[in-house]
Write a structure and sequence with these properties.
Length: about 180
């Protein structure tokens, strides 16, 4: 069953972890303290919707505090920006069941990392055309074939993974 955010029970302070949000933002000033009126510009939402940033305040749950949370009256959901959380030196980890916010200083062992999505402005962008190892070196998946040929061989070889196709080509196991 597919569950949509609007189907979730309405709790007083439920926040969506948003990797696409450039800033923390809410449509409910009651969730913030030390709210100041500001003229912060316009924010576009999904579709053709949007609204003006008219306030800024602080959000806290007693353990973690986020400052400069934007208030936008037209916003229906509360959004926490992953990039802003990372700017506070916290680490985030997503699984199929949850998102974890880890204490500053937590380091993931290099051998656990299989791909990296560098931060570009406030978004984390993964380039799926190359595999970036933990050493930062890029490897081309299919180097000697045009895209049409690669797709054909991918199908002929029972949908073999592109890395395996690349291994076959680089080791001269196929011509």
């Amino acid at each position: 069953m597919l569950l949509h955010v609007q189907d979730l029970p309405r709790l007083v302070s439920r926040w969506i972890m948003d990797s696409g949000a450039s800033r923390h933002m809410t449509g409910k000033t009651a969730l913030l303290y030390d709210v100041k009126n500001i003229n912060g510009g316009y924010v576009g939402f999904a579709g053709n919707q949007g609204g003006r940033i008219i306030g800024e305040g602080t959000l806290s749950n007693g353990i973690v505090t986020f400052e400069r949370v934007n208030y936008i009256a037209e916003l229906e959901n509360n959004l926490l920006s992953i990039s802003q959380i990372c700017d506070r030196m916290y680490t985030t980890h997503f699984t199929d069941k949850e998102c974890l916010i880890l204490k500053p200083g937590f380091v993931i062992p290099e051998e656990w990392i299989i791909m990296r999505a560098p931060r570009v402005n406030d978004l984390y962008v993964l380039d799926m055309s190359v595999a970036t190892t933990t050493t930062g070196q890029a490897h081309c998946f299919v180097s000697r074939a045009i895209e049409k040929e690669s797709k054909l061989w991918h199908r002929k070889m029972e949908h073999i993974h592109l890395r395996k196709m690349n291994h076959l080509v680089h080791n001269d196991l196929v011509t």
